[in-house]
Design brief:
Layout: H1 2-17, H2 19-40, E1 44-54, H3 62-78, H4 82-92, E2 98-103, E3 109-116, H5 119-143, E4 148-154, H6 167-192, H7 198-203, E5 209-212, H8 224-237, E6 248-252, H9 260-273, E7 278-282, H10 290-293, H11 304-308, E8 318-319, E9 325-328, H12 338-342, H13 346-353, E10 358-362, H14 372-379, E11 381-386, H15 393-405, E12 409-415
Parallel strand pairs: 5-12, 6-10, 6-11, 7-9, 7-10, 11-12
Antiparallel strand pairs: 1-3, 1-4, 2-3, 8-9
Helix pairs in contact: 1-2, 2-6, 4-5, 8-9
């Protein structure tokens, strides 16, 4: 029972996350199906009526009626025989329609119904079949009198509207089919492009969740709603098993836009609030962010890229407006020098020099800049950033394999942009 509930819940969650795919496939399949039913596959039906009665008796008893019914059945079968069908085709040309002959039970009538793509062709097909059938019956009676008379009671007329006896059922069936197509397509896209869910972090990635943060705008650094969750993360990190150097922590993820830099900045604020010094080193040279978040210049003097490529003494980091937070911005070194920077022995020297402060290192996404794993290996301690619903599971696993092969101490995962995460004060008031 639990497995069924979990499967249903997983399916509903998948459809909710992939609602664009579900709605798109449903709309396309439904509209196409309805078009094919009502326009492309439109058919018209025209019916002619024949009367078959005995020539010998004016009073119809049960026996004679049964005889007529047998004759009616024979004539109805004759209408669909190859000789009659071929003759009709020769007269009308190559038609795409069908002809059905059906005796009306308990009567002397036979309905000749023809269906075709236009009203006129359906009418012509039905009436031509009647003419050819009468010729065939007269020819048979010349050879062996049957004692019956076949008369045309009503010729077929061109139907004003298409036959639609089963159209409603077909439309309902098409909608149901569209629903199943939507579910199937959502499942396929889910299997091909699986995104990390909150429950996948521990089960699939084998990472402990050390914090969750809700969505916030970059300009909202330090807002009460965000800082609640980061204070909890800051408290958690004090009890993590850090390897030497215990003050240095690298932050990385799988792709841009997961909230890595904003997480570092807000976490630094949480340490600042308890009076602990934090230095942030921005090593994401392709998309440097820290100087923008803290509104400081990205100059060459204190730029981390320039420092790593230099042999001069380490300059002090740039002091931000927050007393306990300083930043080494990315600097202005060319991105082509990134691999040299990541492998520079001066990075270890920087860690040793900054032992009196926490050192947070902002690394670029691991698979986009593979050399950044070297920094994580030097730093030893790494926090992995995951945005549920965006981070790809396969990519995250590949990144973690790289980190684990380098014998890096992965402290855990911080889940970003989680709706309602740790909002202790929902109205942002104390």
């Amino acid at each position: 029972m639990n497995k069924n509930d979990n499967s249903t819940g997983h399916l509903l969650k998948t459809m909710k996350e992939r609602w664009v795919v579900v709605f798109g496939v449903f709309a396309v399949v439904s509209l196409l199906g309805i078009y094919l039913i009502w326009v492309a596959a439109r058919t018209y039906s025209a019916t002619a009526v024949l009367l078959v009665h005995s020539q010998q008796k004016t009073v119809i008893d049960i026996q004679s009626l049964q005889t007529v019914e047998r004759i009616n059945s024979t004539i109805a079968q004759l209408a669909t025989q190859k000789s009659v069908v071929s003759r009709v085709q020769n007269i009308t040309g190559n038609f795409e329609g069908d002809v059905f002959a059906k005796p009306v039970q308990g009567t002397e009538f036979i309905n000749i119904t023809a269906t075709d793509s236009t009203p006129e062709s359906a009418q012509r097909l039905a009436n031509t079949t009647v003419d050819v059938l009468l010729e065939r019956v007269n020819w048979l009676q010349e050879k062996q009198p049957l004692g019956i008379t076949v008369e045309v009671v009503e010729l077929a007329i061109a139907p004003p509207i298409p036959s639609s006896t089963s159209k409603k059922i077909q439309v309902v069936g098409m909608i149901i089919f569209a629903v199943f197509c939507s579910i199937f397509m959502a499942s396929i896209t889910e299997s091909l492009d699986r995104r990390v869910r909150e429950e996948d972090v521990e089960m699939e990635l084998q990472l402990a969740v050390i914090g969750k943060t809700n969505k916030f705008h970059r300009s909202h650094i330090g807002s009460l709603r965000s800082r609640d969750s980061f204070k909890q993360l800051q408290s958690t990190m004090l009890f993590l098993g850090l390897e030497e150097p215990k003050n240095a922590i690298a932050f990385t993820g799988t792709s841009p836009g997961e909230g890595k830099s904003s997480t570092i900045a807000n976490l630094a604020l949480a340490f600042h609030d308890v009076g602990q010094d934090v230095i942030i080193a921005d090593l994401d040279f392709r998309r440097p962010t820290m100087h923008k978040l803290f509104n400081i210049p990205n100059n060459s003097k204190s730029g981390i890229s320039n420092i790593m490529l230099s042999t001069n003494n380490f300059p002090d980091p740039i002091q931000t407006k927050y007393k306990h937070i300083s930043v080494y911005p990315a600097g202005i070194a060319a991105p082509d020098d990134a691999s040299r920077i990541y492998q520079s022995p001066r990075l270890r020297e920087l860690m040793e020099k900054m032992r009196d402060s926490w050192l947070f290192i902002d690394l670029p996404p691991l698979l986009l800049v593979p050399g950044s794993a070297t920094v994580a290996a030097t730093c030893k301690n790494t926090v992995f950033i995951v945005e549920p619903g965006k981070t790809k599971l396969k990519t995250a696993k590949e990144c973690l394999i790289t980190l684990r092969r380098a014998n890096i101490n992965i402290l855990g995962a911080v889940l970003t942009k989680v709706r309602g995460a740790n909002t202790y004060y929902p109205n942002e008031e104390y």
